[in-house]
Amino acid sequence: MEGRTAPRRRPCTRIRCVTDAARVRRLPGRPTQVNRQQAGYLKVRAFGVVTRRGRGDRMAGASVSAGAGERPLEALVRAAQQASPAELPTVLERYAEAMDMGRAIVYLADLQQRVLLPLVEGEPDLDVDASLAGWAYRTNSLRVEEGTSGGLTLWLPLVDGAERLGVLELRMESLDGVKLWRCQTIASLLALIITSKRTYSDTFAQRMRTRPMQLPTEMLRAFLPPRSIGTGRVVSTAVLEPAYELGGDAFDHSFTEDFLHATILDAMGHDLASGLATSVAMAGCRNARRTGADLAKLVATVDQALAKWLPDQFCTGVFTQLHMPTGVLQWSNCGHPAPLLIRGQRLLDKALERDSEPPLGLPASLAGGPRQVHETSLEPGDRILLYTDGVVESRDEGGEQFGLERFTDYIIRSTAAGQNAPEALRLLIRAILGHRHNELSDDATILMIEWQPPGQ
């Protein structure tokens, strides 16, 4: 009309919702689709609202501001910190309702990363490989689903650093830029809260199990770190099976200043004594590490601890230290399969293979001298694989081994397909279990280190 200026166009906020190799396409009445041939973004106009059906990404004005949600968000954090794990779903539900976010449900991945298990009763378990929630978990990406009768369902990954915990489901009538920001903030806070609470509560441990666990496995798992740890330079991730009947396999990884420390262990036998030997080895490793010992001293500490406290038990293992700024890798191999180096989507044959040394725990008179520490320089993108013999020696009903070639080829193909490191190992251990029809004759443990310095 005369005398009026044209309305200003709202700025467009681009919200990264999928991996770099994916484009989001919105189809009415269907979940958000992914085309992995192109990079893309879900576009949400700042302070606008996506309509129920989402046709043409039609937007309507909204007066909601980010500041209006800060006080309730602070209240959520305070209430969640004081709540028991059993009370956490109720606290979350109250906040979601207060902020017009509809229903909120937390799902945690089970020990074997096969299903996502709800923290509340009455909700179904969700298959990691065959659900939208599973897609969000596998790719660490937001997933938006439009319901057939209207409304939206958001699936947000719950991630603490590199550790994948599960997903958060939020059901709502509409979505705008500010609300999406709040949803993502809630998911980030929940991941930290869950990580904190599960260190002193059995509620999460109970919920993440699908069957009873044997006593030796319970003892060993009490010593295990998170499956995955990472920084902007490096990721270390591990899997081990059978999840509920472990013998003597274990892994450990940790950071100290500029170093990543990673270890894999395999004790003799498959009973409580073998689990105890592995636990002593891990305790010796951590004790030496926390006193600032170098790699040679660390391995000597483990040797001495086993020889003194469990003289009838032996253990093989590989101990590594990676200097994250430079990529210099040091390792010591104690009677264990040699580490593998994958570079540029190919295995570098025998790149980290050295003269064999005896297992851990031998008396000094039989050890044959001090342990050797080896060194090499990694290139950006290199992946180091540590594994136990149960991985490659797993046999099918015809007696065919899974084998080293199939093992490394699986990692290479997963890398080429753009799988993140934790997902590549999840798929690999599923393939190994499938080779044996889910019945392993020996423990199978894999730890993978991926070095990717910033700007490379």
UniProtKB/TrEMBL annotation:
Segments forming domain PPM-type phosphatase: 231-451
Record carries keyword Hydrolase: yes
InterPro entries: Bact_Sigma-Reg, PPM-type-like_dom_sf, PPM-type_phosphatase-like_dom
Superkingdom of this protein's organism: Bacteria
Classification via Pfam families: SpoIIE
Disordered: region residues: 355-375
Keyword list, A-Z: Hydrolase
A GO molecular-function annotation: phosphatase activity
Protein name (record): PPM-type phosphatase domain-containing protein
Organism the protein comes from: Streptomyces glebosus
